[in-house]
Specification:
By secondary structure, this protein is an alpha/beta fold. It is about 50% helix and about 15% strand.
């Protein structure tokens, strides 16, 4: 039974590091929203006359592009799941986290089979450590977050995800590298 892992957490929490380790250990497909979508997203934002690096405070992106990005990675995931491959999705899913029925509705909309086991992997890190990581990675798209940290963290640090129709697993990534060993054993059990 293929697993569909939604690795979630705020910017700088270590979603990518955790996702890559999980994909490697599980032999799963790894789909990163940034790698998959950044090229067309930046082109669309330029064509709309907006800053191609700005996402958090860009109305055009929020209203017209973001859902397209997520639909794209979910469709690519579906292609892999239909081949019996487990998939690790590396994306924040921030807009969708408060919607408890997101997995149930997305499963139906995307046509994922009943053999697919969705799992939300919550990556947890203390706020000041996240700020340090976001600053040190030096990405242009993080400029707004850093300039408006209290506003960003007030929203991002308080988001819960209680998606029904999915298993939930947690990993503390406060250290230098997430320890995924115990989580992999748990996931392998879920995948049967």
């Amino acid at each position: 039974m293929p697993l569909l892992l939604f690795v979630v957490g705020p910017a700088g929490s270590g979603k990518s590091t955790t996702s890559k380790l999980l994909a490697q250990r599980l032999g799963a497909a790894y789909i990163d929203k940034d790698t998959t979508c950044t090229g067309f997203t930046e082109a669309l934002l330029r064509l709309a006359g907006t800053d191609p690096q700005e996402r958090d405070n860009n109305t055009y992106y929020q209203e017209h592009v973001m859902n397209l990005e997520y639909d794209t990675i979910l469709k690519v995931a579906g292609d892999n799941l239909s081949l019996g491959l487990s998939v690790v999705l590396d994306a924040p899913f921030g807009r969708y986290l408060p919607h408890d029925r997101f997995v149930v509705e997305t499963r139906q909309r995307m046509g994922w089979g009943s053999d697919v086991t969705p799992v939300v992997v919550h990556v947890k890190v203390e706020g000041e450590e996240i700020r340090r990581r976001v600053k040190s990675r030096g990405l242009a798209r993080d400029a707004w977050k850093l300039a408006h940290w209290d506003q960003f963290w007030g929203k991002a640090g308080d988001v819960r995800c209680d998606w029904i129709g999915a298993e939930h697993a947690y990993i503390d990534n406060t250290g230098s590298r997430p320890d995924v060993h115990g989580l992999v054993a748990e996931l392998e059990r879920l995948g049967g």
